Amino acid sequence: MRKIIVPCGLHCIKINHLGVALGGQEILKDINLHIHCGSLNVVIGRNGAGKSTLIRAILGDIPHTGNIEFKDRENGRIQKLKIGYVPQSMNVEKQTPVSVYDMIASYQSNVPVFLKRGKKIRRQIEEHLEIFEVSYLMDKQVCNLSGGEQQRVLLSMALLNSPNLLLLDEPVSGIDKNGMELFYRTIYRLKENYDLAIILISHDLDYVRQYADKVVLLDGSVRRQGSVREVFQSSEFAQVFGSGKEET
Amino acid sequence: MDFFSWLQYDFMRYAFLAVLIITPLFGLMGTMIVNRKMAFFSDALGHSALTGIAVGVALGVNNTSVSMVAFAIVFALLLNLISSKVSSATDTVISVFSSCSIALGLAILSQGGNFSRYSGLLVGDILSITPQEIVYLFIILVVTLVFWIFGFNKLLAVSLNRALAKSLHISAGWMENLFAVLVALIVMVSIKWVGILIINALLILPAAAARNLSENMREYHFFAILFSVFSGIVGLVISYYVNVATGPTIAILASIIYFATYWWGSRNNV
Q: Tell me, what's the ipTM?
Protein backbone atom coordinates (compact mmCIF):
# COMPACT_ATOMS: atom_id res chain seq x y z
CA MET A 1 0.00 0.00 0.00
CA ARG A 2 1.33 3.40 -0.91
CA LYS A 3 1.95 5.78 1.92
CA ILE A 4 0.29 9.08 1.21
CA ILE A 5 0.27 11.12 4.37
CA VAL A 6 0.97 10.41 8.01
CA PRO A 7 -1.92 11.20 10.34
CA CYS A 8 -1.23 14.38 12.25
CA GLY A 9 -3.53 13.62 15.17
CA LEU A 10 -4.56 17.24 15.25
CA HIS A 11 -7.98 17.02 13.75
CA CYS A 12 -10.97 15.89 15.67
CA ILE A 13 -14.55 15.15 14.91
CA LYS A 14 -17.16 15.76 17.57
CA ILE A 15 -20.62 14.33 17.45
CA ASN A 16 -22.74 16.29 19.92
CA HIS A 17 -26.09 15.14 21.32
CA LEU A 18 -27.07 13.28 18.18
CA GLY A 19 -30.58 11.84 18.25
CA VAL A 20 -32.75 10.09 15.68
CA ALA A 21 -36.48 9.48 15.82
CA LEU A 22 -38.25 7.62 13.04
CA GLY A 23 -42.02 7.31 12.91
CA GLY A 24 -42.39 8.67 16.44
CA GLN A 25 -39.99 6.09 17.82
CA GLU A 26 -36.71 7.21 19.36
CA ILE A 27 -33.96 5.06 17.86
CA LEU A 28 -30.86 6.97 18.96
CA LYS A 29 -30.65 9.23 21.97
CA ASP A 30 -28.01 11.76 23.00
CA ILE A 31 -25.00 10.25 21.22
CA ASN A 32 -21.74 12.03 22.06
CA LEU A 33 -18.56 10.88 20.36
CA HIS A 34 -15.13 12.45 20.11
CA ILE A 35 -12.96 11.04 17.38
CA HIS A 36 -9.36 11.81 16.44
CA CYS A 37 -7.72 11.37 13.09
CA GLY A 38 -5.50 8.35 12.93
CA SER A 39 -7.71 6.28 15.18
CA LEU A 40 -9.89 3.26 14.53
CA ASN A 41 -13.18 3.61 16.37
CA VAL A 42 -15.41 0.58 16.40
CA VAL A 43 -19.10 0.66 17.16
CA ILE A 44 -20.51 -2.56 18.58
CA GLY A 45 -23.93 -3.55 19.81
CA ARG A 46 -26.57 -6.21 19.38
CA ASN A 47 -28.93 -6.30 16.39
CA GLY A 48 -31.31 -3.37 16.40
CA ALA A 49 -29.08 -1.28 18.66
CA GLY A 50 -29.07 1.52 16.07
CA LYS A 51 -25.62 0.95 14.56
CA SER A 52 -26.69 1.36 10.95
CA THR A 53 -29.00 4.23 11.91
CA LEU A 54 -25.99 6.01 13.42
CA ILE A 55 -24.10 5.69 10.14
CA ARG A 56 -27.07 6.89 8.11
CA ALA A 57 -27.50 9.88 10.42
CA ILE A 58 -23.83 10.87 10.14
CA LEU A 59 -24.11 10.55 6.35
CA GLY A 60 -27.16 12.80 6.31
CA ASP A 61 -29.36 10.07 4.85
CA ILE A 62 -31.90 10.44 7.66
CA PRO A 63 -32.72 13.55 9.70
CA HIS A 64 -31.18 13.86 13.16
CA THR A 65 -30.96 16.30 16.03
CA GLY A 66 -27.68 17.51 17.50
CA ASN A 67 -24.65 18.35 15.39
CA ILE A 68 -21.36 17.10 14.01
CA GLU A 69 -18.27 19.32 14.22
CA PHE A 70 -14.96 18.96 12.49
CA LYS A 71 -12.22 20.95 14.18
CA ASP A 72 -8.60 21.71 13.78
CA ARG A 73 -7.37 21.22 17.35
CA GLU A 74 -4.59 23.77 17.13
CA ASN A 75 -6.58 26.81 16.18
CA GLY A 76 -10.09 25.53 16.82
CA ARG A 77 -11.15 26.41 13.30
CA ILE A 78 -14.21 24.55 12.12
CA GLN A 79 -13.84 22.99 8.68
CA LYS A 80 -16.14 21.20 6.32
CA LEU A 81 -16.14 17.49 7.04
CA LYS A 82 -15.59 15.19 4.07
CA ILE A 83 -16.91 11.70 4.62
CA GLY A 84 -15.90 8.56 2.76
CA TYR A 85 -18.46 5.81 3.12
CA VAL A 86 -18.00 2.11 2.50
CA PRO A 87 -21.41 0.41 2.40
CA GLN A 88 -21.88 -3.27 3.16
CA SER A 89 -22.79 -3.95 -0.45
CA MET A 90 -24.07 -2.39 -3.65
CA ASN A 91 -27.40 -3.02 -5.37
CA VAL A 92 -26.06 -5.08 -8.22
CA GLU A 93 -27.66 -8.34 -9.03
CA LYS A 94 -26.35 -10.83 -11.53
CA GLN A 95 -26.02 -9.56 -15.12
CA THR A 96 -26.10 -5.89 -14.15
CA PRO A 97 -23.99 -4.21 -16.86
CA VAL A 98 -22.11 -1.90 -14.49
CA SER A 99 -18.32 -2.10 -14.58
CA VAL A 100 -16.10 -0.95 -11.73
CA TYR A 101 -15.25 2.12 -13.80
CA ASP A 102 -18.95 2.87 -14.38
CA MET A 103 -19.73 2.58 -10.69
CA ILE A 104 -16.92 4.80 -9.42
CA ALA A 105 -17.25 7.37 -12.21
CA SER A 106 -20.99 7.67 -11.64
CA TYR A 107 -20.28 8.95 -8.13
CA GLN A 108 -17.20 10.98 -8.86
CA SER A 109 -17.39 12.37 -12.38
CA ASN A 110 -19.69 14.37 -14.62
CA VAL A 111 -18.54 12.63 -17.80
CA PRO A 112 -21.63 10.56 -18.69
CA VAL A 113 -20.62 6.92 -18.28
CA PHE A 114 -22.96 5.74 -21.04
CA LEU A 115 -21.24 7.93 -23.60
CA LYS A 116 -17.50 7.70 -23.08
CA ARG A 117 -14.76 7.13 -20.57
CA GLY A 118 -13.16 10.27 -19.19
CA LYS A 119 -9.36 10.01 -19.38
CA LYS A 120 -8.68 12.05 -16.27
CA ILE A 121 -11.16 10.27 -14.04
CA ARG A 122 -10.03 6.90 -15.39
CA ARG A 123 -6.45 7.63 -14.40
CA GLN A 124 -7.58 8.83 -11.01
CA ILE A 125 -9.67 5.70 -10.43
CA GLU A 126 -6.80 3.51 -11.54
CA GLU A 127 -4.43 5.16 -9.06
CA HIS A 128 -6.85 4.65 -6.21
CA LEU A 129 -7.62 1.06 -7.14
CA GLU A 130 -3.88 0.46 -7.13
CA ILE A 131 -3.72 1.42 -3.43
CA PHE A 132 -5.49 -1.85 -2.71
CA GLU A 133 -3.88 -3.67 -5.64
CA VAL A 134 -7.11 -4.09 -7.57
CA SER A 135 -6.60 -1.88 -10.63
CA TYR A 136 -6.96 -5.00 -12.82
CA LEU A 137 -10.66 -5.04 -11.86
CA MET A 138 -11.35 -1.68 -13.56
CA ASP A 139 -13.36 -3.12 -16.46
CA LYS A 140 -14.89 -6.09 -14.65
CA GLN A 141 -18.60 -6.15 -13.88
CA VAL A 142 -19.28 -5.23 -10.26
CA CYS A 143 -21.74 -8.12 -9.91
CA ASN A 144 -19.02 -10.64 -10.78
CA LEU A 145 -16.54 -9.54 -8.10
CA SER A 146 -15.97 -11.67 -5.02
CA GLY A 147 -16.96 -10.22 -1.66
CA GLY A 148 -13.36 -9.30 -0.84
CA GLU A 149 -12.73 -7.73 -4.25
CA GLN A 150 -15.89 -5.66 -3.98
CA GLN A 151 -14.86 -4.49 -0.52
CA ARG A 152 -11.46 -3.32 -1.73
CA VAL A 153 -13.00 -1.55 -4.73
CA LEU A 154 -15.44 0.23 -2.40
CA LEU A 155 -12.58 1.25 -0.13
CA SER A 156 -10.67 2.72 -3.09
CA MET A 157 -13.79 4.62 -4.07
CA ALA A 158 -14.25 5.99 -0.55
CA LEU A 159 -10.70 7.38 -0.56
CA LEU A 160 -11.10 9.12 -3.90
CA ASN A 161 -12.01 12.53 -2.56
CA SER A 162 -9.61 12.45 0.39
CA PRO A 163 -12.11 12.14 3.23
CA ASN A 164 -11.42 13.24 6.82
CA LEU A 165 -13.71 10.57 8.15
CA LEU A 166 -14.13 7.05 6.83
CA LEU A 167 -17.37 5.31 7.72
CA LEU A 168 -17.40 1.58 7.23
CA ASP A 169 -20.17 -0.91 7.55
CA GLU A 170 -18.35 -4.20 7.98
CA PRO A 171 -19.36 -6.78 5.42
CA VAL A 172 -21.41 -9.59 6.93
CA SER A 173 -21.73 -11.91 3.98
CA GLY A 174 -19.71 -13.08 1.01
CA ILE A 175 -16.39 -12.90 2.85
CA ASP A 176 -14.65 -15.86 4.45
CA LYS A 177 -12.41 -15.83 7.51
CA ASN A 178 -9.24 -15.09 5.54
CA GLY A 179 -11.05 -12.28 3.76
CA MET A 180 -12.11 -10.79 7.08
CA GLU A 181 -8.57 -10.92 8.39
CA LEU A 182 -7.37 -9.17 5.25
CA PHE A 183 -10.15 -6.59 5.57
CA TYR A 184 -9.11 -5.68 9.11
CA ARG A 185 -5.44 -5.59 8.25
CA THR A 186 -6.22 -3.24 5.35
CA ILE A 187 -8.23 -0.94 7.62
CA TYR A 188 -5.40 -0.97 10.12
CA ARG A 189 -2.82 0.02 7.50
CA LEU A 190 -5.20 2.66 6.22
CA LYS A 191 -5.37 4.42 9.56
CA GLU A 192 -1.59 4.29 9.92
CA ASN A 193 -0.96 5.78 6.49
CA TYR A 194 -3.74 8.26 5.89
CA ASP A 195 -4.78 11.42 7.61
CA LEU A 196 -8.26 10.31 8.52
CA ALA A 197 -10.43 9.02 11.33
CA ILE A 198 -12.29 5.75 10.97
CA ILE A 199 -15.63 4.69 12.38
CA LEU A 200 -16.33 1.02 11.80
CA ILE A 201 -19.56 -0.80 12.53
CA SER A 202 -18.51 -4.28 13.52
CA HIS A 203 -20.28 -7.58 13.98
CA ASP A 204 -17.26 -9.60 14.98
CA LEU A 205 -15.94 -9.03 18.49
CA ASP A 206 -12.75 -11.07 18.03
CA TYR A 207 -11.43 -8.68 15.41
CA VAL A 208 -12.54 -5.68 17.45
CA ARG A 209 -10.47 -6.92 20.37
CA GLN A 210 -7.45 -7.22 18.11
CA TYR A 211 -7.58 -4.02 16.06
CA ALA A 212 -9.71 -1.28 17.65
CA ASP A 213 -8.25 1.81 19.32
CA LYS A 214 -11.55 2.81 20.79
CA VAL A 215 -14.76 0.90 21.25
CA VAL A 216 -18.25 2.35 21.47
CA LEU A 217 -20.94 0.12 22.92
CA LEU A 218 -24.24 1.24 21.45
CA ASP A 219 -27.71 0.34 22.57
CA GLY A 220 -30.04 3.18 21.63
CA SER A 221 -27.57 5.45 23.40
CA VAL A 222 -23.87 5.11 24.13
CA ARG A 223 -23.77 2.59 26.98
CA ARG A 224 -20.01 2.70 27.34
CA GLN A 225 -17.02 3.97 25.37
CA GLY A 226 -13.29 3.75 25.84
CA SER A 227 -10.39 1.39 25.19
CA VAL A 228 -10.99 -2.24 24.26
CA ARG A 229 -10.20 -3.36 27.78
CA GLU A 230 -12.44 -0.78 29.43
CA VAL A 231 -15.45 -1.64 27.33
CA PHE A 232 -15.02 -5.40 27.13
CA GLN A 233 -14.67 -5.73 30.89
CA SER A 234 -17.49 -3.39 31.78
CA SER A 235 -20.76 -4.49 33.33
CA GLU A 236 -22.65 -2.85 30.43
CA PHE A 237 -20.82 -5.10 27.97
CA ALA A 238 -21.75 -8.19 29.97
CA GLN A 239 -25.35 -7.00 30.07
CA VAL A 240 -25.59 -6.48 26.32
CA PHE A 241 -23.68 -9.53 25.15
CA GLY A 242 -24.35 -11.92 28.02
CA SER A 243 -21.40 -14.28 28.21
CA GLY A 244 -19.32 -11.99 26.01
CA LYS A 245 -20.32 -13.41 22.64
CA GLU A 246 -22.48 -11.56 20.17
CA GLU A 247 -25.63 -13.33 19.09
CA THR A 248 -25.50 -12.44 15.39
CA MET B 1 -41.62 -5.09 -55.93
CA ASP B 2 -39.96 -1.87 -54.89
CA PHE B 3 -38.81 -2.36 -51.30
CA PHE B 4 -39.27 1.30 -50.43
CA SER B 5 -42.71 1.60 -51.98
CA TRP B 6 -44.21 2.03 -48.50
CA LEU B 7 -42.53 5.42 -48.26
CA GLN B 8 -44.76 6.87 -50.99
CA TYR B 9 -47.60 7.35 -48.48
CA ASP B 10 -47.59 10.34 -46.15
CA PHE B 11 -48.90 8.33 -43.19
CA MET B 12 -46.04 5.85 -43.59
CA ARG B 13 -43.46 8.61 -43.79
CA TYR B 14 -44.84 10.20 -40.62
CA ALA B 15 -44.98 6.84 -38.89
CA PHE B 16 -41.39 6.20 -39.94
CA LEU B 17 -40.27 9.54 -38.48
CA ALA B 18 -42.19 8.82 -35.27
CA VAL B 19 -40.54 5.40 -34.97
CA LEU B 20 -37.12 7.03 -35.47
CA ILE B 21 -37.86 9.27 -32.47
CA ILE B 22 -39.78 6.92 -30.17
CA THR B 23 -37.55 3.86 -30.40
CA PRO B 24 -34.22 5.41 -29.37
CA LEU B 25 -36.09 7.22 -26.60
CA PHE B 26 -37.58 3.97 -25.34
CA GLY B 27 -34.25 2.16 -25.63
CA LEU B 28 -32.58 4.87 -23.55
CA MET B 29 -35.24 5.05 -20.82
CA GLY B 30 -35.51 1.27 -20.71
CA THR B 31 -31.89 0.90 -19.58
CA MET B 32 -32.62 2.76 -16.36
CA ILE B 33 -36.11 1.33 -15.84
CA VAL B 34 -34.66 -2.19 -15.94
CA ASN B 35 -31.67 -1.21 -13.78
CA ARG B 36 -33.91 0.29 -11.13
CA LYS B 37 -36.38 -2.63 -11.34
CA MET B 38 -39.16 -0.25 -12.29
CA ALA B 39 -40.80 -2.44 -14.94
CA PHE B 40 -43.94 -2.67 -12.86
CA PHE B 41 -43.89 1.06 -12.23
CA SER B 42 -43.85 1.95 -15.93
CA ASP B 43 -46.57 -0.64 -16.58
CA ALA B 44 -48.78 0.97 -13.93
CA LEU B 45 -48.11 4.37 -15.49
CA GLY B 46 -49.24 3.11 -18.89
CA HIS B 47 -52.49 1.88 -17.40
CA SER B 48 -53.03 5.18 -15.65
CA ALA B 49 -53.48 6.81 -19.09
CA LEU B 50 -57.09 5.61 -19.07
CA THR B 51 -57.67 7.15 -15.66
CA GLY B 52 -56.15 10.43 -16.80
CA ILE B 53 -58.53 10.59 -19.74
CA ALA B 54 -61.43 9.63 -17.48
CA VAL B 55 -60.58 12.41 -15.06
CA GLY B 56 -60.51 14.83 -18.00
CA VAL B 57 -63.90 13.62 -19.21
CA ALA B 58 -65.38 13.84 -15.71
CA LEU B 59 -64.09 17.40 -15.28
CA GLY B 60 -65.29 18.40 -18.72
CA VAL B 61 -61.77 19.19 -20.04
CA ASN B 62 -61.71 19.69 -23.82
CA ASN B 63 -58.24 18.33 -24.44
CA THR B 64 -58.02 15.03 -22.55
CA SER B 65 -54.32 14.69 -23.45
CA VAL B 66 -53.59 17.45 -20.96
CA SER B 67 -55.49 15.74 -18.13
CA MET B 68 -53.81 12.47 -19.09
CA VAL B 69 -50.28 13.90 -18.82
CA ALA B 70 -51.11 15.84 -15.65
CA PHE B 71 -52.63 12.78 -13.99
CA ALA B 72 -49.66 10.58 -14.97
CA ILE B 73 -47.17 13.03 -13.46
CA VAL B 74 -49.11 13.25 -10.19
CA PHE B 75 -49.53 9.47 -10.18
CA ALA B 76 -45.80 8.89 -10.75
CA LEU B 77 -44.77 11.26 -7.94
CA LEU B 78 -47.39 9.73 -5.64
CA LEU B 79 -46.10 6.21 -6.34
CA ASN B 80 -42.54 7.36 -5.59
CA LEU B 81 -43.59 9.00 -2.36
CA ILE B 82 -45.64 6.07 -1.14
CA SER B 83 -42.98 3.50 -2.06
CA SER B 84 -40.46 5.41 0.05
CA LYS B 85 -42.80 5.77 3.03
CA VAL B 86 -44.63 2.46 3.19
CA SER B 87 -42.67 -0.50 4.44
CA SER B 88 -44.55 -3.21 2.51
CA ALA B 89 -43.07 -4.42 -0.77
CA THR B 90 -42.99 -1.80 -3.54
CA ASP B 91 -44.66 -4.07 -6.09
CA THR B 92 -47.64 -4.59 -3.78
CA VAL B 93 -48.03 -0.85 -3.21
CA ILE B 94 -47.82 -0.11 -6.93
CA SER B 95 -50.30 -2.87 -7.68
CA VAL B 96 -52.82 -1.52 -5.18
CA PHE B 97 -52.69 1.99 -6.61
CA SER B 98 -52.59 0.83 -10.19
CA SER B 99 -55.65 -1.42 -9.82
CA CYS B 100 -57.52 1.28 -7.97
CA SER B 101 -56.78 3.91 -10.62
CA ILE B 102 -57.56 1.72 -13.62
CA ALA B 103 -60.84 0.58 -12.06
CA LEU B 104 -61.80 4.20 -11.54
CA GLY B 105 -60.87 5.05 -15.12
CA LEU B 106 -62.81 2.15 -16.60
CA ALA B 107 -65.84 2.94 -14.46
CA ILE B 108 -65.99 6.56 -15.63
CA LEU B 109 -65.26 5.85 -19.30
CA SER B 110 -67.72 2.97 -19.55
CA GLN B 111 -70.55 5.06 -18.17
CA GLY B 112 -73.43 4.92 -20.65
CA GLY B 113 -71.78 2.10 -22.59
CA ASN B 114 -69.34 4.38 -24.41
CA PHE B 115 -66.09 2.57 -23.76
CA SER B 116 -65.59 1.51 -27.39
CA ARG B 117 -64.65 5.13 -28.16
CA TYR B 118 -61.50 4.66 -26.14
CA SER B 119 -60.61 1.08 -26.97
CA GLY B 120 -58.25 2.26 -29.73
CA LEU B 121 -55.93 3.40 -26.94
CA LEU B 122 -55.34 -0.18 -25.90
CA VAL B 123 -53.55 -1.14 -29.12
CA GLY B 124 -52.51 2.27 -30.41
CA ASP B 125 -52.14 3.37 -34.01
CA ILE B 126 -48.88 4.89 -35.15
CA LEU B 127 -50.16 5.37 -38.70
CA SER B 128 -52.50 8.16 -37.55
CA ILE B 129 -49.74 10.40 -36.17
CA THR B 130 -49.63 14.00 -37.42
CA PRO B 131 -46.56 16.23 -38.07
CA GLN B 132 -47.40 18.40 -35.08
CA GLU B 133 -47.41 15.40 -32.79
CA ILE B 134 -44.05 14.34 -34.20
CA VAL B 135 -42.73 17.74 -33.13
CA TYR B 136 -43.94 17.06 -29.56
CA LEU B 137 -42.16 13.71 -29.58
CA PHE B 138 -38.99 15.37 -30.84
CA ILE B 139 -39.09 17.94 -28.02
CA ILE B 140 -39.40 15.14 -25.46
CA LEU B 141 -36.44 13.37 -27.08
CA VAL B 142 -34.29 16.49 -26.74
CA VAL B 143 -35.35 16.98 -23.10
CA THR B 144 -34.53 13.36 -22.35
CA LEU B 145 -31.11 13.58 -24.00
CA VAL B 146 -30.24 16.67 -21.96
CA PHE B 147 -31.39 14.98 -18.75
CA TRP B 148 -29.42 11.86 -19.65
CA ILE B 149 -26.20 13.75 -20.33
CA PHE B 150 -26.36 15.78 -17.12
CA GLY B 151 -28.24 13.44 -14.83
CA PHE B 152 -27.45 9.87 -15.82
CA ASN B 153 -24.36 9.48 -13.62
CA LYS B 154 -26.24 10.75 -10.59
CA LEU B 155 -29.22 8.54 -11.30
CA LEU B 156 -26.97 5.50 -11.62
CA ALA B 157 -25.18 6.45 -8.41
CA VAL B 158 -28.49 6.68 -6.54
CA SER B 159 -29.67 3.34 -7.86
CA LEU B 160 -26.41 1.60 -6.91
CA ASN B 161 -26.46 2.83 -3.32
CA ARG B 162 -28.69 5.60 -2.08
CA ALA B 163 -26.86 6.32 1.19
CA LEU B 164 -23.50 6.45 -0.60
CA ALA B 165 -24.91 8.87 -3.17
CA LYS B 166 -26.26 11.07 -0.41
CA SER B 167 -22.91 11.10 1.38
CA LEU B 168 -21.49 12.67 -1.80
CA HIS B 169 -24.24 15.30 -1.83
CA ILE B 170 -26.17 13.83 -4.75
CA SER B 171 -29.82 14.76 -4.27
CA ALA B 172 -31.35 11.31 -4.47
CA GLY B 173 -34.98 12.36 -4.04
CA TRP B 174 -34.75 14.93 -6.81
CA MET B 175 -33.17 12.54 -9.26
CA GLU B 176 -35.73 9.82 -8.54
CA ASN B 177 -38.66 12.19 -8.94
CA LEU B 178 -37.30 13.80 -12.11
CA PHE B 179 -36.80 10.38 -13.64
CA ALA B 180 -40.32 9.27 -12.67
CA VAL B 181 -41.79 12.43 -14.20
CA LEU B 182 -39.81 11.89 -17.39
CA VAL B 183 -41.03 8.28 -17.66
CA ALA B 184 -44.59 9.52 -17.11
CA LEU B 185 -44.22 12.18 -19.84
CA ILE B 186 -42.74 9.77 -22.37
CA VAL B 187 -45.32 7.07 -21.73
CA MET B 188 -48.20 9.54 -22.03
CA VAL B 189 -46.95 11.29 -25.15
CA SER B 190 -46.43 8.02 -26.98
CA ILE B 191 -49.31 5.94 -25.65
CA LYS B 192 -51.73 6.87 -28.45
CA TRP B 193 -49.29 5.53 -31.03
CA VAL B 194 -47.98 2.51 -29.20
CA GLY B 195 -50.96 1.37 -27.14
CA ILE B 196 -51.47 0.74 -23.43
CA LEU B 197 -51.14 -3.01 -23.73
CA ILE B 198 -47.67 -3.11 -25.23
CA ILE B 199 -45.99 0.16 -24.30
CA ASN B 200 -44.16 -1.55 -21.48
CA ALA B 201 -42.88 -4.27 -23.80
CA LEU B 202 -41.17 -1.63 -25.92
CA LEU B 203 -39.62 -0.01 -22.85
CA ILE B 204 -38.38 -3.20 -21.23
CA LEU B 205 -37.49 -5.65 -24.02
CA PRO B 206 -34.61 -3.79 -25.76
CA ALA B 207 -32.88 -3.07 -22.44
CA ALA B 208 -33.48 -6.60 -21.17
CA ALA B 209 -31.99 -7.99 -24.40
CA ALA B 210 -29.02 -5.62 -24.14
CA ARG B 211 -28.31 -6.89 -20.62
CA ASN B 212 -27.78 -10.35 -22.06
CA LEU B 213 -24.78 -9.07 -24.00
CA SER B 214 -23.36 -6.08 -22.14
CA GLU B 215 -20.64 -5.74 -19.54
CA ASN B 216 -20.69 -1.98 -19.07
CA MET B 217 -22.92 1.04 -19.50
CA ARG B 218 -21.65 1.98 -22.96
CA GLU B 219 -22.39 -1.45 -24.42
CA TYR B 220 -25.71 -1.53 -22.55
CA HIS B 221 -26.87 1.75 -24.09
CA PHE B 222 -25.52 0.91 -27.53
CA PHE B 223 -27.31 -2.45 -27.74
CA ALA B 224 -30.55 -1.22 -26.13
CA ILE B 225 -30.87 1.62 -28.64
CA LEU B 226 -29.77 -0.57 -31.56
CA PHE B 227 -32.32 -3.30 -30.75
CA SER B 228 -35.05 -0.76 -30.15
CA VAL B 229 -34.51 1.15 -33.41
CA PHE B 230 -34.02 -2.05 -35.41
CA SER B 231 -37.22 -3.71 -34.18
CA GLY B 232 -39.06 -0.38 -34.63
CA ILE B 233 -38.12 0.14 -38.28
CA VAL B 234 -38.36 -3.50 -39.33
CA GLY B 235 -41.62 -3.88 -37.39
CA LEU B 236 -43.16 -0.89 -39.15
CA VAL B 237 -42.23 -2.20 -42.60
CA ILE B 238 -43.42 -5.75 -41.85
CA SER B 239 -46.69 -4.48 -40.39
CA TYR B 240 -47.28 -2.53 -43.64
CA TYR B 241 -46.83 -5.54 -45.88
CA VAL B 242 -48.56 -8.07 -43.61
CA ASN B 243 -51.30 -5.63 -42.62
CA VAL B 244 -51.24 -6.08 -38.84
CA ALA B 245 -51.02 -3.43 -36.10
CA THR B 246 -47.53 -1.87 -35.91
CA GLY B 247 -47.02 -1.83 -32.11
CA PRO B 248 -47.47 -5.58 -31.63
CA THR B 249 -45.23 -6.34 -34.63
CA ILE B 250 -42.44 -4.27 -33.08
CA ALA B 251 -42.94 -5.98 -29.72
CA ILE B 252 -42.79 -9.44 -31.33
CA LEU B 253 -39.49 -8.57 -33.04
CA ALA B 254 -38.08 -7.19 -29.79
CA SER B 255 -39.06 -10.42 -28.01
CA ILE B 256 -37.33 -12.51 -30.66
CA ILE B 257 -34.19 -10.40 -30.17
CA TYR B 258 -34.48 -10.93 -26.42
CA PHE B 259 -34.60 -14.72 -26.74
CA ALA B 260 -31.80 -14.76 -29.32
CA THR B 261 -29.51 -12.65 -27.10
CA TYR B 262 -30.44 -14.75 -24.06
CA TRP B 263 -29.39 -17.86 -25.91
CA TRP B 264 -26.20 -16.23 -27.22
CA GLY B 265 -25.35 -14.77 -23.81
CA SER B 266 -25.77 -18.03 -21.93
CA ARG B 267 -23.65 -19.87 -24.52
CA ASN B 268 -20.88 -17.30 -24.30
CA ASN B 269 -21.05 -16.74 -20.55
CA VAL B 270 -21.67 -13.04 -20.67
A: 0.87
